[in-house]
Amino acid sequence: MGVVMSTLVRGIKLLLIIGLSMSLTGCDDPQVYGSVGVSSGYGGYGGGGRYNSSPRMRGSVSVGGRIF
Amino acid sequence: MPKLNYLLICLLVAFGAGCTTMPNLPSVTETPTNTSLPGKIIWHELLTDTPAASEAFYTELFGWEFESVGFGFASAATANYRLIRHDGRLIGGMIDQSRLDTDEDISQWVVLMATDDIERAVGVVAADGGTVFTPPTALANRGRIAVVADPQGALFALLETKDGDPLDYEPELNDFLWHELWTDDGAGAIAFYRRLAGYDLEEKAVPDDEAYQFLSKDGVPRAGILLNPIEDLPPLWSTYVRVEDPAAITARVEALGGQVLLPVQDRALGGQVALIAGPSGAGFVIQTWQPQD
After folding, report:
1. B254 has a chain A CB within 8 A of its CB
2. A49, B139: Cβ pair inside 8 Å?
3. Most buried of A18, A52, B80, B275, CB within 10 angstroms?
4. In what order do the strands lie in the sheet with B176-183?
5. For residue B140, which of B287, B5, B27 has the smallest C-alpha distance?
6. Interhelix angle B3-17/A2-24, nearest 10 degrees
7. Which residue from B230, B279, B289 is facing A48, i.e. has the nearest CB?
8. pTM (predicted TM-score)
């Protein structure tokens, strides 16, 4: 009986430590985007605001947008 | 067994299982809706290589609130995910692309489209010549996600929620308002998305133009289809944010690290729009809009 209890306690400790360890390893990173290789295309206009340039796109979105 | 060995083994197990385990993201709704709205854009994720600057940009511009997620002792600090709220309502998430396994600059807003059968939807993408970047993957309480591109290369994600999709509501100022596919092949895109989500195609006359085409489901407009209105921009899903005064917004954009890509324009059907980008280069449209009676 003592051996069984001791094994049980060890098992519970093991599970608790595994749970704690997994909470510390940042396993909730959403890596689902890691294989994406598609740029939005906006970067071709100066990489956003990072270069302090002011590229303007050519076009019009006057027809688009919500109409309801 | 010495306690130190216990700890070592457990850490090895944890890191080994590590990030092959399911990401522990929360549901996209605060409370279960148990409602499926296939074809509706139900979530938005910002991939950015400038997360701190992006957070400041959207906080200052729209008053959005960012918060960490996580359920462990340290995961809230280490998780590469920040929830975005507007007036307390969950509207999206932000991911630091520099912590992803990609060398590409993929900074952009990604729309997540609801599906009630993600296996079938991914099958349609593959069969029609699209790209499946990530096959259906479980995200704990969020449900199952697949990251794909349509046959013309427009990136989006499919999400089969676990607790139901967010219900429709009237977008408030500074909230997401509308979604539109900018495509080089309207007919091809319409055929693909109708197969994907069972949309109906509708049109509305536009002054001095042919018509504005949009996809609806069960009588509810879900997304517009527009021949790519921007020169040299590849096909993409464009996200609209409702604002009160586009000029006031664009006047602040560059000081906050973003860019005005298209200045304020009058819309053919009334109101105004402008195309701007955040600090990482992720573009989106701002639009004035009044609820219909």
Report:
1. yes
2. no
3. B275
4. B200-205, B211-217, B220-227, B176-183, B236-242, B283-287, B272-277, B259-266
5. B27
6. 50
7. B279
8. 0.86
Domain of residue B51: give its range: 23-161
For chain A positions 47-66, those within 8 Å of chain B (CB to CB) are: 47-50, 54-66
Interval B242-281: pLDDT, tens: 999 999 999 999 999 999 999 999 999 899 999 999 999 9
Mutate to test the interface with B, among A28, A35, A58 (most CBs of B within 10 A): A28
Restricting to B residues 161-200, those with a Cβ less than 8 Å away from any Cβ of A are: 177-178, 180, 182
> What is the tally of structural domains in chain B?
2
Backbone angles phi, psi at B256, to 5 degrees: -95, 5
Q: Is residue B188 part of a domain?
A: yes
Distance CA B138, CA B32 (A): 17
**CATH number, domain with residue B269:** 3.10.180.10
What ipTM does the predicted assembly reach?
Answer: 0.82
A18, A28, A55 member nearest B70 (Cβ): A28
Cβ separation of A60 and B24 shorter than 8 Å?
no
Is residue B107 within 8 Å of B284, Cβ to Cβ?
no
Q: B265 and B231 share a domain?
A: yes
Judge if B156 and B29 occupy the same domain: yes
